[in-house]
Amino acid sequence: MDAAAGAVQKNLSLIAHALKIGRAKDCQLECERTMRQMKEISTRLLPKKHIFMTDVLHYKGLAFMKQKLFDHACVAFQQELALAVEHRMLDVKIRAMNHVGKANASKGAFADAGEIWDNLLSITKKTSERAYLFHEIGRCYLETNKPDICKFYGNQCLEEALKIDDHTWAMNAHILLGQCEVTAKNLDSAGNHFYEAAEKAAKSGTKAYLALLTEAQQCIRVWLDKIANTEAEEEEEGTVHKQGSDDSFEVEEESKRLSHK
Questions:
Q1: Which residue has the higher pLDDT, 214 or 232?
Q2: What is the pLDDT of residue 164?
Q3: Is residue 245 predicted with pLDDT exceeding 50?
Q4: N- to C-terminal Cα distance for the chain?
Q5: I want to staple 18 with a disulfide (CB 3.0 to 4.6 A). Which of 26, 100, 237, 256 is the partner?
Q6: How many CB atoms lie within 10 A of CB 193?
Q7: Of 259, 255, 134, 234, which is closest to residue 187 (Cα–Cα)?
Q8: Using one digit for the tens of pLDDT, what is the confidence trace for 23-57?
Q9: Does pLDDT of 133 surpass 70?
Q10: Among 67, 74, 70, 32, which Cα is nearest to 53's?
Q11: Which residues touch 17 (CB under 8 Å, ≥6 apart)?
């Protein structure tokens, strides 16, 4: 390895270490310093300059993500993507597109995140990665209050997960579908999805989700019992009572907790 490449490689090691030990600001500053240095080095002296630059930009984006500076992270990942496209680096392109999606979703730009992930589907062949993308796109539609479209992507995620017997992504798909049904007030269906999710969680050893899924199912049972009792009382009294939003609040809150676990 020549001197220029060796120096950049050493800087990359420092950058990776800073991020690993939680010093995101130091990581960011080291990335910026390394980028300035590389811009002064010709491609003759540093033939793999474009590869090093995409790596540094990626770390810079990750450092911004750790600092919750999502707009800045998005810019860094987009710069990485532009270089990857220019130099026909498919793996780096996929990595950058995914993180542009993550940065947009983290700052609440769910439509933009969903669009970039949808575009990524066309060049993603691995089944587990497609399951992940279908799930994330569906989550974007759920966040923008479009549960019907979310259900389509949730079912696609489930289909991909079942192809390879991936219990974790099958669990995530059932959770997403259950959340769609809660939003649509289809509680029986929501309960079924949360039950299936709990089964998959047990098989995958995802204990953290089991407690939340159990609570969600309990909330749904309580709500369904309350609706059944109310309807029985209405039938006896001959009155009409509209189920209020307060009755569903606990179920909806429990469902949302599953998204942020």
A1: 214
A2: 97
A3: no
A4: 44
A5: 26
A6: 25
A7: 255
A8: 999 999 999 999 999 999 999 999 999 999 999 99
A9: yes
A10: 32
A11: none
Burial class (CB in 10 A: 0-12, 13-18, 19+), 155: middle
Write phi, then psi, for 144 (nearest 5 degrees): -100, 20
pLDDT digits (tens, 9 = 90+) for 154-180: 999 999 999 999 999 999 999 999 999
Q: Please give the single-letter amino acid code of residue 104.
A: N
pTM of the model: 0.84
3-state secondary structure (DSSP) of residue 69 = coil
Confidence of residue 258 (pLDDT cuts 50, 70, 90): low
- Closest Cα partner for 28 from 39, 38, 19, 20? 19
- C-alpha distance from residue 242 to each of 69, 182, 190 (Å): 44, 17, 21
Dist. CA 135–CA 258, nearest whole Å: 14
Domains and CATH numbers, the chain: 28-109 (no CATH), 124-237+248-261 (1.25.40)
CB contact set of 67 (below 8 Å; sequence gap of 6+): 24, 25, 28
For 110, the 3-state DSSP assignment is: helix
**Structure token pair of residue 179:** 């959340």
* Over residues 4-18, mean pLDDT: 95
Element (H, E) at 105: helix 90-106
242 DSSP 8-state letter:
P
Q: What helix, strand, coil percent values describe the chain, rounded to 5?
A: 80, 0, 20
Q: Which residue reads 């907790």 in tokens? A: 257
> Which amino acid, residue 244?
G
